[in-house]
Structures are given as structure tokens and as C-alpha cells.
Task: inverse folding
């Protein structure tokens, strides 16, 4: 769906504004020094952009939510503070409540209902990007592009593999988004493959 390039000024719905990609990246990098966490943001951004294109939604806005969703995790690494204490920092900058709500909704412990396609997509891709990256790194070629739904699901059955990632959350997220799980894996992996260099997942040659 062709979309005219446009600025992202104040959102008439709530008086807030949407940062462009450059501003979101600068803010995220100001708060996040870990390469792994920065890469997580970029992976989620890529996956959300892919879903925005698929659903005919605003790719720039969805991407910005991906870049910012864990921006406060280094300063607030516990459930008592992340992501809720990040919200005032975003409000101070005048950001849209739609953006802030989407970020808050990715945290299960806050119990915020995910009602918009953006919120459902963020939740659905958040853990899947990390798991897909882990599956890529145990491949001989270490390339994200080679990760298939079959190998992804095989690793899900291996309880010791990436044990911190909730299998249920991944399955439930895709279901709530309304996308069959295999297709969901393919969309996320395809999106990550498009930015594989930045994610450090291009494969051996890219190391
Ligand atoms: Fe988070
Ligand atoms: Fe995340």
C-alpha cells in the first residue's frame, strides 16, 4: 500500500507527537549502551515494520515503537520499574499516548489489555526475535536467513535452549495477532534477515 512520506507532528487524537526514526534511535542510544539490547530493539523494529507493511499500517510509527519499547531497560532492569517508569520520560518529550500505551502494553505484569494491531504485533514479535536469533547462532552458518519454522519449533521443545524465553508467550502472542505460528516465524525471520548485518546475524562472512 503506497504511503505518502509525511512528517509526524502532534497526534490530533491525544495532542502528542511521534518522533521520527532518527530521534527515536538517538533517544534509545542515549539510554542503552549494551550492544545486545540495541540489537534487540532493531530486531523488533524490523519485525514491526514488516507487520505494518503487511497490515497496511504506518511503518514509521510501528518501527519507532520497536526502537523504543525497551529503551529504559538498562536504567530500569526490574519489573517494578520497566517499562512503567520509562513512560514519564517519553511524556516529557511530548510523545503520543498511543506510542506510550503500546510500549506499556508489552509488559505482561502491568496487565494492560492489548487492543490495537500495533500492541498485538509488538507482543507477538518481542520474544520471537530473541529466540530466532538464538536459533541462528547454533546453526553452522550462524545466519538468521536460514532459520526455518521447523528448526525454530524443534528448539522450542528443547527446554534447556534459551530457557528464559517463554514458549507460551510466543505461541499466545501469534495467536492473539491472528497469524499462524509458522507464518509468524517466517515473517519475523524474514524481517530480521533484512537487517542481518546490524543484528550481527548475517552469518560467518558477516562476523
Ligand atoms: Fe520489555
Ligand atoms: Fe523487548
Result:
Amino acid at each position: 500500500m503506497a504511503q505518502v512520506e509525511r512528517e509526524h507532528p502532534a497526534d490530533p487524537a491525544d495532542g502528542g507527537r511521534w518522533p521520527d526514526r532518527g530521534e527515536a534511535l538517538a533517544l534509545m542510544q542515549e539510554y542503552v549502551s549494551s550492544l545486545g539490547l540495541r540489537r534487540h530493539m532493531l530486531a523488533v523494529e524490523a519485525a514491526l515494520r514488516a507487520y505494518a507493511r503487511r497490515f497496511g499500517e504506518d511503518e514509521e510509527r510501528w518501527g519507532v515503537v520497536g526502537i523504543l519499547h525497551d529503551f529504559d531497560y538498562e536504567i530500569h532492569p526490574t519489573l517494578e520499574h520497566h517499562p512503567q517508569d520509562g513512560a514519564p520520560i517519553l511524556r516529557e518529550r511530548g510523545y503520543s499516548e498511543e506510542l506510550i500505551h503500546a510500549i506499556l502494553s508489552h509488559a505482561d505484569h502491568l496487565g494492560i489489555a492489548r487492543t490495537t494491531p500495533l500492541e498485538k504485533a509488538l507482543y507477538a514479535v518481542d520474544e520471537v526475535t530473541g529466540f530466532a536469533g538464538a536459533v541462528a547462532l547454533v546453526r553452522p552458518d550462524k545466519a538468521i536467513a536460514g532459520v526455518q519454522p521447523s528448526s525454530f519449533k524443534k528448539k522450542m521443545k528443547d527446554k534447556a535452549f534459551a530457557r528464559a524465553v517463554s514458549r507460551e508467550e510466543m505461541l499466545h502472542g501469534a495467536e492473539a495477532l491472528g497469524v499462524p505460528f509458522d507464518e509468524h516465524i517466517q515473517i519475523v525471520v524474514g524481517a530480521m534477515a533484512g537487517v542481518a548485518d546490524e543484528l550481527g546475524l548475517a552469518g560467518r562472512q558477516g562476523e
